[in-house]
Amino acid sequence: MNPVFNQSINIQFPNDISLTIKRExxxxxxxxxxxxxxxxxxxxxxxxxxxxxxxxxxxxxxNHIAAVAYAGKEQGFKTIGIIRGDELLDKIEENPTLKFAQxxxxxxxxxxxxxxxxxxxxxFIEKLKKQFGDFYLVPEGGTNELAVKGCExxxxxxDSVFNYVCCAVGTGGTISGLINSSLQNQKILGFPALKGDxxxxxxxxxxxxxxxxxxxxxxxxxxxxINLELxxxxxxxxxxxxxxxxPIYTGKMVFGVIDLIRKNYFPAHSKILLIHTGGLQGIDGxxxxxxxxxxxxxxxxx
Length: 302
What we know:
This protein is α/β, with parallel strands linked by helices. 37% of the residues lie in helices and 16% in strands. The strands form two sheets. The protein has a six-stranded mixed beta sheet with strand order 1-2-10-7-8-9. Strands 5-4-3-6 form a four-stranded parallel beta sheet. Helix 1 (33-48) crosses helix 2 (63-75) and helix 1 crosses helix 6 (145-151). InterPro entries: ACCD_DCysDesulf (IPR027278), TrpB-like_PALP (IPR001926), TrpB-like_PALP_sf (IPR036052).
């Protein structure tokens, strides 16, 4: 595990507002950001239960699939990925995420989108147990009580100076951990990567405080959607700050926070902490799509 540090953002904002980013993306080269946090206690639990196989779920460019594959190999587990989209079966070699996961020992089971929606159903899990034998189930996105426990360790004592803590939201585990470990005078703002209001109920399952709010205006059309404005923002942010942002989660959150600052959402003298939740492995796959659409690619290095 590499040391995480808080990096000041080189943008001058009005009203003495300051922006800092917590570089959770640097925590591990392949199991970065919130994936490291979510898997930490789940892997310990799997070992405590004497499980030898991890089974989980994800899409074509899933950060979670890549992280489970590598962490499983590193910790001596066999890994199985139930992948959304049976059309991907013969496209592994051209998909950087699936190729990486396979190279790290993950066995795939490709299912249709209709079947994938059953992933939480008891009958579907039982069918998988008959097919693959005993396994430790890691939910899609990694979110469960143990994942939230890991995410509670993101904030440290030095972060008590911040009035606002902002993060992207996928399944709700990361923001729940931040809420639980935050101070009462801090406001936690979540920026959903998906359309829809269902996340509020998911977060309430795990969150023990009510000092939080979801801001749903910056999903750019839905999960995985991206446009020229967001690409140009992410590339300009990298040029100015040397911080690469992923386009699915953190890039949209940072865009949203800066837009809200310019719209005077935050009071004067606010100290805002952005949580970089990693996800950079997905950029190679996104750049393949952007080239196909004849759009500029995302920069991750000089």
